[in-house]
Amino acid sequence: MSFVSLGSLTNRMAPRWASSEDLVFAAIRREWTRSFPESISEHSYPLSFSGNLVVIGVDSPIRQREFSFLEPQLRESLRRFVPDLPECTLRFRVIRPFSPKAHVLPPAPLPDDRLEELEQKASDIVSVLSDTRIREGAFRLVLQCLIQGAILGFGDGNSPAASGPDLANPDRK
Question: CA triplet 51, 55, 57: central angle to 5 degrees?
């Protein structure tokens, strides 16, 4: 078994990770139900975001027409909850079968203060990287690893590594 440094692994993996568009789209999905009243959010959900186009799935041609007339107001409402959203156009597509619940993100598994702590830790880890293009991807990679570790209980005293010596292997500390 061989090990590689985090820096070299990050340099290879960073270009494959999410772009800023992916992060904006995740924010759109997360804030969708807060951005609009139920009369809109129950009959629509975001399908994709690319460049300056947000594609929204709707449940019927009537709603497609109705929402297209409301496009400027819907866009401004969405921008209040997703400040990183650039100037964009909303397009509506009828989706059959319509299932908005399948596209709703589950709530975050960690409290906000714990997520902020992990973001700061990830930022500290990648701050030594000089290339800003690599730093953004590395930040997402490191943050994902820290969040997964926190969800699994690593680093909070519940993991086997944090509990002290292994009784089955007394030489291991």
Answer: 165
Examine the pLDDT at 68 and tell me if it is beyond 50: yes
Contact predicate 47/169, CB 8 Å: no
How many of the other CB atoms lie within 10 Å of CB of 162? 11
Selection from 15, 3, 5 nearest residue 140 by Cα: 15
pLDDT over 70, % of the chain: 72
What are φ and ψ of residue 130, in 5° steps? -85, -30
Nearby residues of 80 by Cβ (< 8 Å), 6 or more positions away: 35
Count CB neighbours of 92 within 10 A.
Answer: 22
Where does the pLDDT of residue 23 fall: very low under 50, low under 70, confident under 90, or very high at 90 and above?
A: confident
Highest-scoring range by mean pLDDT, 69-78, 99-108, 162-171: 69-78
Report pTM.
0.51
What is the DSSP secondary structure assignment for residue 15, as one 8-state letter? G
Cβ neighbours for 73, distance < 8 A, ≥ 6 positions apart: none
Strands 89-94 and 44-50 come out as unpaired
Q: At CA 83, angle to CA 47 and CA 122, rounded to 5?
A: 90
What is the C-alpha separation between 72 and 79, in angstroms, rounded? 11
